Amino acid sequence: MTTFTPPPDTAAWQHLAVRTGFEVVCFRSPPDGYRVEGCTTAVEEGEAWVVDYVIELDSGWATRSARLESRSARARRHIVLEADGAGHWRVDGAPASWLDGCLDVDLESSALTNAFPVHRLRLGVGAASPAPAAFVRAADLAVERLEQHYARLPDDGGRQRYDYAAPVFDVACRLTYDESGLVLDYPGLAIRAA
InterPro entries, per this entry (predicted)? Predict the structure, then answer.
């Protein structure tokens, strides 16, 4: 089983290729899990946008809530996702049955959220698992179901590696993580800056 060191107080990623921008997060450790407060600012396809978020995770790293706000020249939006930790969700207070079975939130605007299933699953080398997620779009905060899959590879120089796939986006790549289980390199999307 995989073990991780505690997350750092802060982390940051520089976005590449798909968008130009930056993400910064701060970790808090209440007694019953983690609270992540973050912000991504980016320019994508000529449009500048900002997404602020606060995500609450239980002690097993399953998402319990996510509060997001996006701002762009077109609009300002807010959304609240709540999860019971057993795969049932509410979006802005309404049941979201299309997310049944998801235990993680995955933000399109974030490199951080790929840490959640890795922490929650704690896969040993050679193990693999599906990890469907409540996927939140950056521009309009639309919530979709995202089917994704993680497969643990042997470590490389102390860095954990996973083959990651999200077929709906035609994404298949190798993600590299640090000892605290945060993404160091997401090919074509982001690299860890701090």
Answer: Glycolipid-bd_prot_put
* 69 Cβ neighbours under 8 A, 6+ residues apart: 51, 52, 53, 76, 77, 78
Alpha-helical (H) ranges within the chain are: 115-121
This prediction has a pTM of 0.96
Tokens of 149: 């899959």
- Split into its structural domains, the chain has a count of 1
Q: Which residues contact 157 (CB under 8 A, 6 or more apart)?
A: none
User: Which pLDDT band, with edges at 50, 70 and 90, does 3 fall under?
Assistant: confident
- Of 10, 12, 5, nearest to 184 by C-alpha is 12
Instruction: Provide the pLDDT confidence category of residue 122 given band limits of 50, 70 and 90.
Output: very high
Residue 73: count of CB within 10 angstroms of its CB: 7
Query: Is residue 39 domain-resident?
Result: yes
59 lies in some domain: yes
Residue 72 lies in a domain: yes
The answer as to whether 3 is a domain residue is: no
Judge whether residue 164 has pLDDT over 80. Answer: yes
Structural domain harbouring 178: 10-192
